[in-house]
Amino acid sequence: MSDKPVTAVIVGAGHRSLHYASYSIAHPDELKIVGVADPVARRREQVAAKYQIPRQHWFESAEELANQPKMADAVINGTMDHHHVPTSLPLLRAGYDLLLEKPLATSETEMRELARTTADTGRTVLICHVLRYAPFYRTVRELVMNGAIGDVINIQTTEHVSYHHMAVGFVRGKWNNKDKCRSSMLMSKCCHDLDLLAWMKSGISPSSVASFGSNMYFRPENMPEGAGYRCLVDCEIESNCLYSARKHYLDHPDRWSFYVWDTLEHIERPSLAQKEASLKADNPYGRCVWRCDNDVVDHQSVAVAFADGSTATHNMVGGTARPSRSIHLLGTKGEIQGVFEDSRIIVRHIDTAPGCEYTEEIIDLNETGDMHGATGGHGGGDLRLVSDFVNTLRGLPRSISCTSLDDSLAGHSIGFSADRAMEEHAVVNLEHS
Question: Are 196 and 227 in the same domain?
């Protein structure tokens, strides 16, 4: 155990890694950022200025960092999905512990290679399953652990991906095409949810998976009459379109700004006029949603059987009005139900008293004070995750949410198997996959 701050290098200076690194600003006695590796010069410069990183600790790649004498305890790896394993392997061999953004890999082969290398090097790899750390899901897990509903028979989870999130991430954006990002929408968006299914079953292995889904809506044949190629250039119906780039990114200039205005990073504070010019030119977020190169699904349903005979389902639906996640667990002695965004959990039990059918308890985290300090993204989970990573490396007690790499494999295996099941129209047996 050490009372010195954990030192870390940011690899991939994007939105997620910079958010995790911000923990060091509020807790400089726990975490210190001492280096940066990113292929984009201006990102290296921006991070270096923010954390006072000396020039000799700037690197263009994870490989360049790994080839230097070890200069920190850990790496915060926030590279794009398909770079996670290729960048992590040399860093593990160089002696770094990793806080690795999800999904941990984009294929089962990569996932197993990362697991082998982690075991061989004896390093710590913690995957950013931030929803485990949100007070809402932590409370649900505590109820299950304490036997509040007996043995879990069935779990039902949903994720409704809002229309603007769907468009920015999976139609126009970085995760819209499997050849480019080498990851499916299920794995990019819902490996959190699949991890929750595995976590709630607490070590009971998933045994088989089935899945159905498609890209049903964001297709050229569904393009409205009069639609153009770029919303602000040649579209006759832009003013009435729900997916107008003007409505999504100019009328809401800060919404998804870290994606949409990436091409304007060289401008400190781009004006609306500069943003509009960007959308009219070659900014990918200015494209018509029905004329993009997207090939990932816009909805998918997953069914899972576990080794103890219990089952689970997850439904992901893109293009919804309200973004939301929900969970419903049914056990031998009761049920737990709630919507993440509401921070309210309902616990029901069978009641055989005359005139009764069941009892109901409502746990409102907004009123109990459990949401106190739940700042940051994912319902307060993001920075609590970083705290656990720091505590792990310092030899301090960790929360019930803390996951090992082995814990993360089950949820990822469900996701990879679900995509294979959907593509092959088959049931995938995980024991023989």
Answer: no
Are 325 and 194 spatial neighbours (Cβ–Cβ below 8 Å)?
A: no
pLDDT classification of 407: cutoffs 50, 70, 90: confident
Same domain, 122 and 10: yes
The residue among 261, 286, 311 that closes a domain is 286
Point out the least confidently predicted range of 155-159, 220-224, 353-357. Answer: 353-357
Does pLDDT of 1 surpass 70?
Answer: no
Tally Cβ neighbours within 10 Å of residue 153.
Answer: 16
Query: What DSSP character marks residue 230?
Result: B
> Six-digit token pair at 109?
């082969």
Whether residue 247 lies inside any domain: the answer is yes
421 domain residue, yes or no? yes
Two structure tokens written together for 55: 């020039």
- C-alpha to C-alpha distance for 316 and 305, rounded to whole angstroms: 18
Residues 84 and 189 in one domain: no
Strand, coil or helix: 336: strand
- DSSP 8-state secondary structure symbol assigned to residue 327: E
Distance between first and last Cα of the chain:
40
Judgement on whether residues 187 and 74 belong to the same structural domain of the protein:
no
- Residue 198 placed within a domain: yes
Q: What is the CATH number of the domain that holds 43?
A: 3.40.50.720
* pLDDT reported for residue 375: 45
CA max distance for the chain: 76
Domain membership flag for residue 1: no
pLDDT in tens, 13-30: 988 999 999 999 999 999
- pLDDT by residue (tens digit) across 55-98? 999 999 999 999 999 999 999 999 999 999 999 999 999 999 99
Token pair in block for residue 324: 């939301």
* Residue-range definition of the domain harbouring residue 117: 6-128
The reported pTM is: 0.90
119 three-class SS: helix
Q: What is the mean pLDDT of the chain?
A: 93
3-state DSSP call for residue 293?
coil
Do 201 and 305 belong to one domain? yes
Phi and psi, residue 292, nearest 5°: -95, 175
Could you tell me if 339 and 269 lie in one domain?
no
Nearest to 421 by CA among 293, 297, 329, 310: 297
Residue 265 has pLDDT above 80, yes or no: no
Residues 6+ apart with CB under 8 A from 108: 413, 416, 433
Residue 386 near residue 132 (C-beta atoms within 8 A):
no
CA distance 403 to 115: 14
CA neighbor of 202 nearest in space, from 329, 114, 334, 314: 329
